[in-house]
Amino acid sequence: MPQIPGTDIVTSSLGLGGNVFGWSADEAASFDVLDAFADAGGTMIDTADVYAAWLGTEGGESETIIGKWMAARGNRGKMIIATKVGSAPGYDNLQPGTIRGALERSLTRLQTDYVDVYYAHYDRPDPLVDTMATFDALVREGKVRSIAASNYSAARLAEALDISADHGWNPYSALQPEYSLLERTVYDTELAPLCVARGLGTFPYYGLARGYLTGKYRLGGPAVDSVRAQGTAQYVNDNGERVLAVLEQVADGHAVPMASVALAWLSTRPAVIAPLASARTVDQLSDLLPAMGLTLTSEEIHALNLVSSTT
Predict the structure, then answer these.
(1) Nearest 5°: phi and psi at 255?
(2) Cα 184 to Cα 305: distance, rounded to the nearest angstrom
(3) Tens of pLDDT along 170-187?
(4) 194-214 in b/e burial notation, b at 16+ Cβ within 10 A?
(5) Is residue 51 among the annotated active site residues?
(6) Taking the CB of the first residue and of the last residue of the chain, which one, N or C, has fewer CB atoms within 10 A?
(7) Which position among 51, 91, 206, 212 bears the catalytic label?
(8) Cis peptide before 303 (omega within 30 of 0)
(9) Is residue 259 included in any domain, yes or no?
């Protein structure tokens, strides 16, 4: 089982994204997905206080559902819960008061007295020294087990790590970047080298390229009825088809869904702890779960590396 560097937090090799809970998956459907994920050995659940504020709410729907589910199942101690601060309406900064206030709201919704991983959701112009001091204090108070960054540039991540080191504070232990077979440049050239050098792990999101790497979206194929369809349009081209062809070949060789191969490939990449992926139904989740037990051969990894390096 993978472990977040510098911590005693051990996670499943696949993380379940909670962005769909309370949005495209209602409470009952969310409970079904969460049950199936836990039954398969999954422990890492990733959410944010802003999910799903795009519906016109104040956010927190996802956290509320996860909290109800853990309370109903009595399994809080078995799950690794990651949530985020810095994007919800009225809490869209990383000032000390905002961080503390948002955390208390998240803890209430999650029905817990601590979170395992607390992310700065996006980099903000607030002074990093104030942000890192507050995060450190929350770790020392036991309300947060580890702190992490999401959507940070390499330069700002390095600055945050330097500030924590200079003050003897708890540093960011993980990064959540966008990374997939179709989005490699920034991670491979900037973020991964820094994370390896500074001892951070990563939890990539959009590992399925917004659903494109499931194989449902094909050049010249039928339209797909999905809330993600618009986001995948950028990949429906000749380059995308070349990646899908190799992905499909590898998947057929293991008799697993293409999505699980795309996620398993991520797990072979530098600094990756576990990829994140979401599912609004148990059927969708079943395409992801084989990634947790899938080992790709060196030849398969090379083929995927080669075809995706040109996209």
Answers:
(1) 55, 45
(2) 10
(3) 999 999 999 999 999 999
(4) bbeebebbbbbbbbbbbbbbb
(5) yes
(6) N
(7) 51
(8) no
(9) no
Confirm if 207 and 180 have CB atoms less than 8 A apart.
Answer: yes
Q: Which residue in the block uniquely carries the two structure tokens 């190799």?
A: 246
Residue type, 288: L
Helix axes 61-73, 27-39, angle to 10 degrees: 60
Supply the DSSP symbol for 3.
Answer: B
Helices marked H in 79-189:
96-110, 128-140, 154-167, 185-186
Domain membership flag for residue 281: no
Number of domains the chain is built from: 1
Residue 203 falls within a domain, yes or no? no
pLDDT tens-digit profile of 48-86? Answer: 999 999 999 999 999 999 999 999 999 999 999 999 999
The answer to whether residue 97 is domain-embedded is yes
Distance separating alpha carbons of residues 240 and 244, to the nearest angstrom: 6
Return the pLDDT at 36. 98
pTM: 0.96
Domain of 159? 15-176
Decide if 19 contacts 277 (C-beta within 8 A). Answer: no
